[in-house]
Amino acid sequence: MTREQILRVKAEEDKIPLLVVGNKSDLEERRQVPVEEARSKAEEWGVQYVETSAKTRANVDKVFFDLMREIRTKKMSENKDKNGKKSSKNKKSFKERCCLL
C-alpha cells in the first residue's frame, strides 16, 4: 500500500504515524533505491527513514519501537485535544447521575 492510498483512506486524520523503511540493507550491491532518494522522500513527507535487515536483525526492533512511539504520541495528542475541549453534550454532574437508596 502506498502513502497516497493510506492518506486517501485515512483522509480525516491530519497526521498518520508513518516511517519510511528500507529493507534488505545487507544486500547493498542489489540496492534499487539510492539512500539519498529515500531520505529525501522521508524528509519531504516529514517522517523518519530507517534501513533494516531481517537477516542481520539490523534496526528491526528500532523500527517497531519508533512506530509505536509515533502512535503513542499521536494518541496522547488526541486525548489532550479531547480533554481540553468542552463537550457539546449536556452531561449530568456526578450527583445528578447517582442516587442513594
Please outline the helices and strands.
Elements: H1 3-9, E1 19-22, H2 35-45, E2 48-51, H3 60-84, H4 94-97
Parallel strand pairs: 1-2
Region (Disordered): 75-101
GO biological process, one term: signal transduction
Organism: Homo sapiens (Human)
3D structure, described in words:
- This protein has a domain of 55 residues.
- The protein contains 4 helices and 2 strands.
- A two-stranded parallel ribbon has the order 1-2.
- The protein is mostly helical.
- The N and C termini lie far apart (58 Å).
**Unreliable runs, pLDDT <50, ≥5 residues?**
none
Q: Mind describing the biggest β-sheet? A: 2 strands, parallel
Strand order of the largest sheet: 1-2
Distance between the termini: 58 Å
How many H/I helical runs? 4
The total beta strand count reads 2
Radius of gyration, Cα only, in angstroms? 21 Å
Structural class comes to mainly alpha
User: How much β-strand is present in the residues?
Assistant: 5-15%
Shape: elongated
Helix content: 40-55%
